[in-house]
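Hi R.,

As promised, here are both runs. First protein below:
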Amino acid sequence: MKKRTPIILVNSLDVERGGITRASIKRANMLSQHNKNVMIITFAYQQYFNKIIQKLYDKNILSKHVKVINFFEEMQLMKKKTKAKKQLVKEKGYTVFPVENRKKEPSYRYYKNGLYIMYKRFNAEGCIKFIDYMDETGKRVRREEYNENGILARTRHMDNTNNKPRFDQYFDTSGNCIFSVYVNPKSDNEGRVVRFIHQPKEFTSLSKCQQEWLESVLQRIKYPVVSSELRKFTPMLANVQHKNIKKIEVIHSSHLQKPFNDNSMIKPAYQSLFKELASNFDYIVFLTNEQKQDVEKVYGANSNFRVIPHSTSIKEERKTKNTLNYNPYLAVTLARLHEVKRLEEAIHAFRLVVDKLPKAQYYIYGNGNSKEELQALIKNLKLQNNVFLKSYTNSPQTTYRNAACSILTSRQEGFAMVITESMAVGTPVISYNIKYGPKDIITDGIDGHLVEDGSRQALAKKIIDVMENEKYRKNLSTNALKVKKTFSEKRYNRNWLELYL
């Protein structure tokens, strides 16, 4: 029997992680119980990559039997362990001013002869994190970034019009530039790459350079089974040449464009996948039957299509007799603070909830770039005493258990693990009926609620019903627990093992 090596391609890993990363880690951990050679390959530059991976191991988020390698770390030869280099704050000839409110990561401005020359930030351990260099007008022209050991890893040269990177240099531990990347300062997309190590070579894009590197990694593995978790990796994996490779494409998100409910409006990356590249993959995995059926309506049936939903991994159930151990006037959402999650819909709906139930509260857990807009909306709707933006939580089970219900108002999802995670501890979910996920998981009025997409009034009414009627909420809670059987670990493991091993 061939000994397969499961390999998962993701952009990056982190302790505070989104749905795709969490799903990839979960699968890698499961596979590591059946195969000692499991690998995750990441492609994004992360300044503290080794520190992040070690923290994932230490917190038992990622199995220590799963090996993680990163494109930039491998190219930069940063594997060699070196003692952390600490740099002094003071510099001869400069006047130094500390930056307020930077206690966790001390930062300083450096002046010389009246000119603002440098800005330095240190990490909590006292190692330099980055240095910004200014021109004579105080505009940033260059940033030097250092790894967790205080070794220069990347220099970013800034565009003089919008203060964004337009050219990056990457260095090895000896300070030699190993490759350069041209960056579009308007889109942040990486363009032409020049590599100076091994056999010096120019590439038209970073993805082409990464594909060549990926092939070199896979050539060292006799029987690789590789899954792509993001569409940016689809062409890369499709074009990889290896005589013994098995390729898997995993669809984590909706393939539809706005308004995300018209089956004829398909995102270009998915058109390319289903029209041109599908035959390059041994399996294409969907998370819901609904999405698979929608794709088949357009492109026809494919014997390589599979449906493998996420499983519920919470072991302990909340017993019916303990259903009062929650706040009957609390609703929660765990999500990125991002426009695709449409949290403003939930906040507007909650204004209607508070009008009926003044003591109702809504906690939103997560980080993201929409925080300021959401905070402004909360203030505008006069909900400062009812709606609270909280940071990312590492205790989702406890968070859900404390609430009467959870809310989902996303524009689109691939599956929405937050639904099964909430239901698995007996907390019913009230969700907009979007593509994809809610309809495959929630039975309306039995274990939760599906409401018309965009109907804030309907959303508010169901939240109020759950908060006001303890007996009704108890019935939803009891039925919600059945999600653990529907989306069982056993079935999930069996389905994935059939593809990988």
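And here is the second one, sequence first, then its structure tokens:
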Amino acid sequence: MRKFTPFLRPKIHVQFFRDASTSYKQSSAEYCMDLVRKSDYENFLCTLLLTNNIVPAAFAVRAFNIEIAQIQDQVHENNIGIMRFKFWEDSLNKIYDGVPPRSPIALELHRVLQRYKLSKRYFKRLIHSRAERMGLSTFADLESLEKYSENTVSSIYYLLLEANGIQNIHADHAASHLGKAHGIVTLLRSIPHNAQRRVIVLPRDILMKHNVSEENIFRGKSGQDLSNTIFDVASQAKQHLDKARKLKSDVPKDAKLIFLPATCIDIYLEKLQKVDFNVFDPSLYVRNNLLPLHLLRRKLFSSNY
């Protein structure tokens, strides 16, 4: 079986919050937290373990990202999707002008900006990079996938570093590599969902290199050709994860907790390797009930990411 170079098996605790369906009226902060819990559970757990001073900003940033990321799946016409992206771009300008729309995410982001200095350009990257891909599925090559991951995932890490007041070139470089790794893994995990919609998201150059049958992907069949494709793409994610970790000794201690999602990437890549890079293997999509413990141990007993 093909193997990556050895990587550490990472290691969080579970906190429970009142469900959104209860009768109390949610604050904007609670709304954002609940949205992240329901839509991005792994990052929800990682956010719980951040230092208290940046947790509100982290939930607001991640909730904003979820709202933007879901647009393409929620609309059936490109024009409607573009209109929604434009709405959020206008809303972002209003938020920074101090007159946010009356929506929970906009209100919470406005509240957070009273305390934290977060660059508007990173939020705009989240909007523009997804808007540019409206109606598109596959990437031309790995380089375009990495660029997309930089804009949509690394930007979140940059915002969290800003929330913590960290200005460090090594932390920025680690955020760039980790964001690319995270973005690539997110794409790999989305393959079965997209295949059901008859959408292929893998880079075209790698698909052509291994002569992959699109119909087999739609049918959820993982032959050797697709396995080789997944190996190539996953190896790129692993390389970026390794590069982020090589910078660990130069990254400020407060920044390392922000990079805890590296643990989730590690666990997925290890599981993917064990099933010989079959992205359709059901074991990859079973929630890991030990993840909270792994993350907590990583926070308490190691150098975090």
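A quick note on the second one: Residues 6-24 have pLDDT under 50 and may be disordered. Let me know what you think.

Best,
J.
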